Amino acid sequence: MFVRRKKNKSGIISIQIIDKSAGKYKMVETVGSSSDPETIERLFSKANKRIEVLTGQNKLPFNRLAEADWVNTFLHGIERLELVGPEMLLGKLYNEIGFDEIKDDLLRHLVIARLAYPASKLKTVDYLYQYKGIEIDINKIYRYLDKLQKQQMQRIQAISYEHTRKVLGNRISIVFYDVTTLYFEAEDEDDLRKIGFSKDGKHQQPQIVLGLLVSSGGYPLAYEIFEGNTFEGHTMIPVIEAFKTKYKLKQLVIVADAGLMSDKNISSLKLQGFKYIIGGRIKNETDIVKKQILAMNLKDGKSKVITKPDGQRLIVSYATQRAKKDAYNRQRGIAKLEKAVTSGKLTKKQLHNRGYNKYLKMDGEVTIAIDYSKLAKEKKWDGLKGYITNTEFSKEEIIENYKQLWMIEKTFRISKTDLRIRPVYHYVKRRIEAHICIAFIACKIYKELERQLAEKKSELSPEKAIDILKTMHALTFITPHSNTKYTRLLIKTEAQKNLIDLFDLSWVSQ
Length: 510
Description:
Blueprint: E1 2-7, E2 13-21, E3 24-34, H1 37-55, H2 64-76, E4 78-83, H3 85-97, H4 105-116, H5 121-132, H6 138-168, E5 174-183, E6 207-215, E7 220-227, H7 236-246, E8 253-256, H8 263-271, E9 275-280, H9 287-294, E10 303-307, E11 313-318, H10 320-343, E12 360-363, E13 367-370, H11 372-378, E14 384-389, H12 395-403, H13 406-418, H14 429-455, H15 462-469, E15 473-478, E16 485-490, H16 494-503
Helix pairs in contact: 3-4, 3-14, 4-5, 4-14, 6-14
């Protein structure tokens, strides 16, 4: 290509870009026309720079001073540097699950921010502005939380449930229930935020109790919040009943820890036709049943079934590894007691019948000693674990399903550690509920990311994948000569490229 000065009949000179190909000349474009000599020279210079853009042969300066000018000109043309990685993948999963049915961009921003940079709503405002170029007033977020709680929460849980049903099929009929506590930084109590037994060790701070229902695989299905001093055993039935009614489920199998299953809860489950698998307290069984258990003489990995008079089945299993752990924990507890007894530093708080203090006995009025005969009897139970059920599952299926309870503990860990759902900074109940709803969506996306990574046989953890996403930016800049705006995705590392290929990610400038 070259620049041509073409003189018209009127005397005006047109500055044209000409392309010569296969011996033929073709006009590419006319840059401008003028009769003024200075203007003609400026057009001529502009045409040469335009050729550099058209041919992709931008000439770099060869001296340092000119190079510095070129760099400064380029930097001056940068409009913004935007973090786009989280939206590329987490936004894609958000859509695939179906949350994009909720036509609120602010919900999307709050959820993805909770996954990428979990923080208070005030700090989330800073994150959206600094990393996404999105300017949102904090009061707009608070107003949206009110809307979310009032209009969208139920729809969000339904979307999550429907996606999980598609993924799991019939396995969604087996659900797992547990509770945790979420504490507040403020010290004042109210009708919801109350001081109670804290699973985070924050016994002096008000809290709420969160009941969570998850599926096989750990997908969050439903949740409910309760007053902070609510006994955890009283939370399960309301959550399960509401879940079954909402989705018109004919049958559910509830898997829960023994601590949640009081006689009243079991009676309620039976009355409503629920099936259940719960941890069995084998040491609290009748003397007849306990004799049967100890007479089993089970080997590692083996189990047997005892049918109880009320029709429930008690499955008892034995694991060598569990026996070693039981023995180790007991010995460690006894060592502390022996040290305390020897030093004479036992206090009133140790004179109760909980934990390893049950091995203490008092002789006469003041002598305190360790009851080693009771300790010897306790060893017989090492490695034994009980499960109570009214299902027709095989004993192997019972044990396997109960083992999956760890997934709900993992879901709680994800919520508290990765998503930083607590401490909670809101004080109004409706906003507390909206805050937990946002964390619920984020947790669902996190678990879906985990599932797809495993399905694709990737060695990446969700945490590592999100860390990589947080390094992926897009640069928007204006070229110094043509004033053309461009946006380019900045992908430089193999980790970034591999993640893009793994999920077939694409990004389009907004």
